[in-house]
Amino acid sequence: MPNEQKILDQLKSWDVARLIPTLPDSKKEEKATSILLAAFRVVPIFALDMLKEAGAPAGKRVKIHCLTEVVPKDQKGPKLRPDGLIYIETGRSTWSAIVESKVSLNDLDPGQIESYVGIARNLQCDAVITISNQFSAIPTHHPVTVPKNKLGKIGLYHFSWLSLVSKAVLLAANKKVDDPEQAFILAELVRYFQNAKSGVLLMTQIGPGWKRSCEQILKGVRLLKSSEEVEQAVTSWEQLTRYLALQLTLAVSKPISIHLTRPQIKDPEKRVKTHIDELVGSHSLTDYFDIPNAAGKLRVTADFSRRALDFSMTVASPKNKTYASACINWFLRQIKSDDPELFIRANWPGRTPATMVKVEQLREDPNLIVPNGSKSLPTNLEVVRVIDLAARFQQRRKFVEITETEVLRFYEEICQYLKNWVAPAPKVISPPVTDLSEEVVEE
Question: Does one domain contain both 240 and 190?
Answer without folding.
Answer: no
